[in-house]
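ok so heres the complex, two chains, lmk if somethin looks off
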Amino acid sequence: MINLKIDAEKGEGIELAEKYNIRGFPTIVFTNNRGDEIDRIVGYKDPDQFFSELSRIKSGRNTLPTLLTDFQTNPNNFSTLFKLTKKYEAMGDPASATRMINAILKAGVDSSGTAKFFSILYQSREIQKPDGLLEYANNHPESGYLTTALQEAMYFIRRIGKNKQLEADVYVRLINSYEEENPGMLNSFAWRMSELKLYLDLALEKVTWAIGQTSDNKQKHMFIDTKAEILWKLNRIDDAILEIEKCTTFDPNNIYYKEQLEKFKGPINT
Amino acid sequence: MKTQISLFITIIFLLGCESNHSYPWVINTTYDDLLKSADEKLILLDFETEW
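and the predicted structre for the whole thing:
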């Protein structure tokens, strides 16, 4: 195996990053000597995960060429078609991913409804609108793809930026769809609600829970800042000041926390 | 006996080296040149940024 580090922001790295649709870092792309992509590893992996993937790719298991060979042999196999779908999606080739999904639907082998969901997802991404995903979420509340549908829908709604109430409603549905509550995720929800000035009581409840779940002091005080912001938006100024002072005490050199304190002590929030 | 022990140690040494593959990074080459010299080897491209 030959290994080459590429700075995606310099020299030929810029062109190569575009050629291989590199959208995040780290990304490792495996190619043959013609520059054809064999597979890729996206994002951080711990050593065991990384070496497991490396071993798989070196052995040719479930790599793009192998799956294409399988496809030639059995063009209606759901597993092969869906694996190819995910490969093309990871490669930033939505047209090919959609082709594979359509092949599944045409072959009538989508017994689990997976291809139906991904067809809606890819179409939504193409037109940059949430409607199909929201309809899916409404019609399939028990689906294993509910969280993904709501997450992607919320991204489009926020990007369009014309319906804050809808964004908030979908965000509430999203956090309720998770099997386990996650402190970081709930802090993000609470902060966004403070920005939208919607569901503030719920946001306060969720961030208070998140604070209680966090043992990391730096993170805990970030969550306390969120709580302070929500209290300020609820016009509970004295409570907001009490909370933010916990942050300024924890990190006296933090300029942002000082600015928050000054803001809360300033003119009444309208 | 000494010969057998030496042979045993040598085999263990060689097997030990064989099991620890190292994958050095190629430097001072363009991607096109690397493709030309790659033969049938798999190429690993590690995309990074400074930030």
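quick notes: The longest strand of chain A covers residues 2-7. thats all i got rn
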